[in-house]
From TrEMBL:
<dbReference type="Pfam" id="PF17820">
    <property type="entry name" value="PDZ_6"/>
</dbReference>
<dbReference type="InterPro" id="IPR036034">
    <property type="entry name" value="PDZ_sf"/>
</dbReference>
<feature type="domain" description="PDZ">
    <location>
        <begin position="99"/>
        <end position="169"/>
    </location>
</feature>
<dbReference type="InterPro" id="IPR029045">
    <property type="entry name" value="ClpP/crotonase-like_dom_sf"/>
</dbReference>
<comment type="similarity">
    <text>Belongs to the peptidase S41A family.</text>
</comment>
<dbReference type="Pfam" id="PF03572">
    <property type="entry name" value="Peptidase_S41"/>
</dbReference>
<keyword id="KW-0378">Hydrolase</keyword>
<dbReference type="InterPro" id="IPR005151">
    <property type="entry name" value="Tail-specific_protease"/>
</dbReference>
<protein>
    <submittedName>
        <fullName>S41 family peptidase</fullName>
    </submittedName>
</protein>
<keyword id="KW-0720">Serine protease</keyword>
<dbReference type="InterPro" id="IPR004447">
    <property type="entry name" value="Peptidase_S41A"/>
</dbReference>
<keyword id="KW-0645">Protease</keyword>
<dbReference type="InterPro" id="IPR041489">
    <property type="entry name" value="PDZ_6"/>
</dbReference>
<dbReference type="InterPro" id="IPR001478">
    <property type="entry name" value="PDZ"/>
</dbReference>
Length: 554
């Protein structure tokens, strides 16, 4: 019996809730559905006997959920069981709305700190600021509380009251606040404005309900305010996707009516669909650039793929994530849901950009990316070659910018955040987000602020050297090179202060962004970051030079 359990544990446990050992229909032995029903009956009988005779009590819900989790290991990571208590997360993915106070948090050590406050949110109305430390929630001490637990307590139905006690990070004074939760709507367009004088810029963070309409309104407002606009950049970097229908609406802003944007094909042929633009385009002529990176996925890739395949604009940045799968939710008993991958989607040229093949697993049960040798070539409307099986390759590739180890450490340990908090309470106002600059004297203050603070780290070179030492010892070569190794180690040993100065420009930019965020919220942070944005600068350069732009589309 134990052998049977080990080999069959990944059968369709979720359907057990539906059939519960009911009698089988008469199926032909060769029919797959007969095999499913047969094994479900065996599974139900097995569980019934195990539950009845096993020496200790077995919690039914826990065992069933383990069975469901085991089954899901055979699928892709996007297929999931959603219990009733987690339906709010599913709703947020579709709508961008949730009940809460409108803040981001971070837990370090015993305490959780407010890191971002959404403009106009309940917490903003109460005057709570980034840097404030959460002392208690509804009379429950927050000391030592896990970040996930704090997050759950901050959320709740609109109209409910949350009693908070917060500590000011500078004065140490504790203040009680009564915050009334509201429905928080995370805006899919986090920023829209002009860059390089004549180029419009729209930052889209997710594809939720009505997000396409919001992108369209942002574009129309830019055009109305700047009739001489020479091009527009749609920034989909870091956009994880969302609703497929909204991707079609976004593409329709720049692509005319009745154009195929995406098609879906799956096991249930009746569900196969073609999605075409339904409206006359807002602007079919304005030069367009779409920004992507490795975190642009799903619906973001549908838009980028359609723009590329229809030769409507250029894609700039890095290759996208490569998620070519479509999910549908199915109802389950007791208000649970099954979020299941039902189809693959295909761009107008006919390519599926899914990068990982979940249908074929290696001997260890792992999955691999589609190898380059199996990627097929398709053609765009103008005959340009594009490939499937690996995300959207940009027309103009820009190497990503990586932060230095010292900058990563200063961010991770919140020293940049803490300095910005201190700066905010000692400066009642600053220049506009675009014009604000941290002075040399203020950077010196930051250096002084770091004195006696531990921001030690290992450089990648040091990590590689340690790996070499371990390998050399294992292969018994280390004794022969020990002296040279120690000499090299001494030469590579980094000086924190020197690293700080060597990466001063980068750290200064991060400080300016965090400080600006205190006065002008997320919009200010984004506006400040645009000046040194390499991908945006390249996109703007192409849009302002028609010959270079058109050359990429030939």
């Amino acid at each position: 019996m134990r052998t049977f359990l080990n080999t069959k544990k990944k059968f369709i446990a979720i359907l057990l809730l539906l059939v519960s050992g009911a009698g089988l229909l008469a199926f032909n032995e060769s029919d797959k559905y007969f095999q499913i029903a047969k094994n479900l009956d065996i599974f139900a009988a097995f569980y019934r006997e195990l539950n009845t005779y096993y020496v200790d009590d077995l919690p039914p819900e826990k065992i069933m959920h383990k069975g469901i989790a085991a089954m899901l290991e055979e699928t892709d990571p996007y297929t999931d069981f959603v219990s009733e208590e987690n339906l709010d997360d599913l709703k947020f993915m579709a709508t961008g709305k949730y009940g809460g106070v409108g803040a981001s948090i971070n837990t370090m050590g015993d305490w959780t700190t407010i890191t971002d406050v959404y403009e106009g949110s309940p917490i903003d109305k109460e005057g709570i600021k980034p840097g404030d430390v959460i002392i208690s929630l509804d009379n429950k001490s927050a000391k030592g509380m896990e970040q996930e637990e704090v997050s759950k307590l901050l959320k709740g139905s609109a109209g409910t009251v949350l009693n908070m006690v917060l500590r000011n990070p500078v004065t140490g004074k504790e203040t009680a606040r009564k915050v009334i939760r509201e429905e928080i709507n995370v805006k899919p367009v986090s920023y829209a404005g002009m860059v390089k004088h004549d180029i419009g810029y729209i930052k889209m963070t997710q594809f939720t309900e009505n997000s396409g309409l919001q992108v369209q309104r942002a574009f129309e407002q830019l055009k109305a305010a700047h009739p001489g606009m020479k091009g527009v950049v749609l920034d989909l970097r870091g956009n994880p996707g969302g609703l497929l229908d909204e991707a079609v609406v976004v593409a329709n802003i720049f692509v005319d009516k009745n154009k195929l944007i995406v098609s879906t094909k799956g096991k249930v042929k009746n569900w196969d669909r073609e999605y075409k633009t339904a409206q006359v385009a807002t602007d079919m002529q304005i030069p367009l650039a779409v920004l992507t990176n490795r975190s642009s996925a799903s619906a973001a890739e549908i838009v980028a793929g359609a723009v590329q395949d229809l030769d409507r604009g250029v894609v700039v940045g890095q290759r996208s994530f490569g998620k070519g799968l479509v999910q549908t939710t199915r109802p389950l008993p007791y208000n649970a849901k099954l979020k299941v991958t039902t189809a693959k989607y295909y761009t107008p040229s006919g390519r599926c950009i899914q990068a990982i093949d979940y249908s074929h697993r290696n001997e260890e049960g792992g999955v691999d990316s589609v190898p380059d040798s199996l990627r097929q070539t398709f053609t765009t409307q103008h005959g340009r070659s594009v490939k499937d099986g690996g995300g959207i390759e940009p027309d103009a590739k820009v190497e990503p910018t990586y932060l230095s180890q010292v900058a990563i450490t200063l961010l991770r340990k919140q020293f940049i955040f803490d300095y910005a908090t201190s700066y905010y309470y000692s400066h009642p106002s600053i220049a506009s987000a675009h014009d604000f600059v941290l002075t040399e004297a203020e950077f010196d203050e930051f250096e002084h602020f770091l004195e006696n603070k531990d921001y030690s780290y290992k450089t990648r070179s040091e990590e590689a050297l340690e790996t070499f030492k371990a390998t050399a010892k294992k292969e018994k070569y280390y004794d022969a090179v020990a002296k040279e190794y120690e000499t090299l180690q001494q030469k590579m040993r980094h000086d924190k202060k020197q690293d700080l100065l060597k990466n001063k420009a980068e750290i200064k930019r991060l400080l300016e962004e965090e400080i600006v965020n205190r006065y002008y919220a997320q919009r200010g942070r984004i506006e400040k970051s645009l000046a040194w944005d390499n991908e945006l600068n390249e996109a703007a350069r192409l849009l302002l030079h028609p010959v270079a732009y058109q050359q990429l589309l030939k």
